[in-house]
Design a protein that fits this description.
Layout: E1 4-7, E2 19-20, E3 26-27, H1 32-43, E4 47-51, H2 57-66, E5 70-72, H3 78-89, E6 96-99, H4 106-111, E7 114-117, H5 123-126, E8 131-132, H6 141-152, H7 156-162
Parallel strand pairs: 1-4, 1-6, 4-5, 6-7, 7-8
Antiparallel strand pairs: 2-3
């Protein structure tokens, strides 16, 4: 059973674009449907983690809004942070689903109980992924991932009841 979801940000929670204004401000867009799915997952007792290689106040704000259980930025060895979470939560890799889109996610994807790659992810990680999603990063990939997990675990009715 999956108990922990691990999200990469750029290319998974957001599209692959990083936009800067002339004054140096960074802009990102997050999919609201992804957010509802993450919140639902946590209401259903699941844990969540963001492990990203970049640093952004925007991502920190989104993680706080959603109530993400674990949040790590500027991570070069993502698998090490995941190992720390697993120890703390007393879980193993079979309890983890990871979504990533490029080589810096490779180790986590390879070890996860269930690995997901958005449709526009790198061919390197698509080759090792358990599931290549229909959605692109930032365009509902997180929602699709969560719904696939809940469907496989026969928990869709539980999801729907949260919002009735």
């Amino acid at each position: 059973m999956i108990k922990l979801l691990v999200f990469d940000v750029d290319g998974c929670m957001t599209n692959v674009a990083i936009t800067y204004s002339n004054d140096g401000n960074e802009y990102k867009s997050f999919n609201v449907k992804d957010g509802l799915a993450i919140v639902s997952w946590m209401k259903m007792g699941g844990k969540s983690a963001i492990i990203t290689g970049r640093e952004s106040k925007i991502v920190e704000k989104r993680a706080n809004e959603l109530g993400i259980s674990y949040f790590f930025q500027k991570v070069t060895k993502k698998i090490e942070k995941l190992d720390d979470i697993l120890k703390k939560e007393e879980l193993n890799y079979s309890n983890v689903a990871v979504i990533g889109d490029d080589l810096n996610d490779y180790e986590m994807l390879k070890c996860a109980g269930w690995s997901f790659v958005p449709n526009d992810g790198s061919h390197f990680v698509k080759e090792i992924a358990d599931t290549i999603l229909d959605a692109k990063g930032g365009d509902g990939a997180i929602r699709e991932m969560i719904e696939k997990i809940l469907k496989k675990e026969n928990r869709i009715e539980e999801l729907v009841k949260l919002w009735l």
